[in-house]
Amino acid sequence: MEGMSTIVKRVTPLLAGLIFLYGIYIILHGHLTPGGGFAGGAIIAGAFILLILAFGSSALNLKKEVAGSSNTESIALLMVVVLALMALLFGTKVFFFNYLPKGEPGELLSAGVIPLYNIFIGIEVAGAILTIFLALVIFKEESSK
Amino acid sequence: MELTISIILGFMIIGAIYALHAKDLLSAVMAMGIVGYGLVICFLLLKAPDLAIVQIVVETITLVIMVAVVLDSTREELAITLDRRAILQMIAGFIVFAGLFYFFILAIEHLDPLGAHTLRMSETYVNGAVELTGSVNLVTGVLFDFRAYDTLGEAVILYTAALGVLTLLRIKGKK
Amino acid sequence: MTVYILCFVLFLVGLYGLITRRNLIKIAISLSIMEFSIFLMLVLIGYIDNGLMPIVDPGLSAQVYVDPLPQAMVLTAIVIGLATTAMLMAIAIRLYRKYKTFDIREMKNLRG
After folding, report:
1. Number of domains in chain A
2. Model ipTM value
């Protein structure tokens, strides 16, 4: 897959950085404002897809990238399960129990484990979407040879 | 409110019919974008900003993937031939449609009219949810506390789909 | 009631495409349209007139909020819809490489 023109290549890194930052904001404020892990993860994956479309697949080592995104996704899903299992050690012994202190509603550091779930679900969604996209790009590259 | 959503739904239906009848696959995929982005506006009007954010990003990524597949293969739609089998399929389809429509009309008699929903099921999810979960956003509270098993299942399905795509596209087919 | 009926008409358009089209891409589009109509139906059922969006302001006392339960369910369903569409696209491109066509009837004839 070829990259695009010089103008696109100059503008895209600036935009992709801002989009990535916006995705992180959406994930971290998931318990206060609209958004959360699913929306933020999809936005982060969108930033990476924008970079790949602008610079073309020749600029990166695709096999390594897909292994990396696939591993990230697996580890994030494992962390969600570990966080849920840790609830069996503290307080009321219920799977998915919110065992951290709740804090003041409306503050950034509140709601116990919900922000942590948001972060790991966000990483998992971003990794999954990126893996699917990279697999399609690799298939296109290999079949056009 | 009902009128606005009806007008947007009308546009979505026209876009859907065009998407199914377009001669060019690329314009069919683009016409599906009308349906998806119309849905975003409906979500915003129905006070569901979480869904609007997710839908607008997911629709864009879906369009990118579909356009990539169409440009990689062929853009031409198959010639539609009206042979005996196609006509039989259409007749059977319209009989099924008439039956489904009849049962739907029967079913919406028991539904609350638009805007008069009673919180029978989710009263406990709204009242006192902030004290129970600590999350100000009620959707996140439902998603990660009251119904966390659903979220876990969803994450596992997404993981399985990614593995499935990797398996489908990375193995060498036999000649 | 009109909105519910229009929503169901959108579903029927998707179903019509699913049973009459032979092109794999068109079948994927029909499935997506059916999905969209069902998301809209679920959110419409949870809407309350003059209800606030489901984000609580701790300062204010009791308010009427839109039902958050259908919204949370639809949120997961949208992401699953993306996964299934991507999976269908992967199957379609794989079959195109093997048979050089998107026609499902041709594929049945060329089996093997």
Report:
1. 1
2. 0.86
CA-CA distances (angstroms) from residue B173 to A133, B71, B122, C92? 20, 22, 50, 14
Round the average pLDDT of chain A to a whole number and report it: 83
Residue A18 in domain: yes
For C29-77, the pLDDT digits (tens) are 999 999 999 999 888 888 888 878 888 777 776 677 888 888 888 988 8
Of C58, C76, C90, the CB nearest to A105: C58
For chain B, domain boundaries: 1-80, 81-117, 119-175
β-strand partners of B115: C48
A105 contacts C90? CB cut-off 8 A = no
What residues of chain C lie within 8 A of the CB of A34, using their CB? 53, 55
Tokens linked to C27: 């079948």
Residues of A in contact with C58 (CB under 8 A): 105-106
Alpha-carbon distance of A129 to C111, in angstroms, equals 32
Tell me if A86 is assigned to some domain.
yes
Q: Is A1 domain-assigned? A: no
Backbone angles phi, psi at B116, to 5 degrees: -115, 35
| Phi-psi region at A110: left, alpha or beta (left = phi > 0; alpha = psi -120 to 50) | beta
- The Cα A39–Cα A128 span in angstroms is 13
Q: Is A66 on the interface with B (CB under 8 A)?
A: yes
CA distances for C109 relative to B83, B120, B175, C23, angstroms? 17, 53, 17, 15
Determine the average pLDDT of the residues in A7-21: 89
In this complex, which of B104, B114, B154 lies closest to C47 when CB atoms are compared?
A: B114
DSSP state of C53: P
B118 CB-contact burial (10 Å; exposed 0-12 / middle 13-18 / buried 19+): exposed
Q: Pick from B114, B117, B143: which is nearest to C67 by CB? A: B117
Burial letters for A65-101: b for 16+ Cβ neighbours within 10 Å, e otherwise? bbeebbebbbebbebbeeebeebeeeeeeeebbbbbe
Instruction: Please tell me if residue C90 touches chain A, with a CB cutoff of 8 Å.
Output: yes
Q: Which of residues 42-81 of C touch B (CB under 8 A)?
A: 43-49, 51-58, 65-69, 71-76, 78-81
Number of domains in chain C: 1
Which residue range is the domain that position A68 belongs to?
6-144
- Parent domain of C69: 2-109
Find chain A residues with C-beta within 8 A of C82's C-beta. Answer: 42, 129
Instruction: Check CB contact of C41 with chain B, cutoff 8 Å.
Output: no
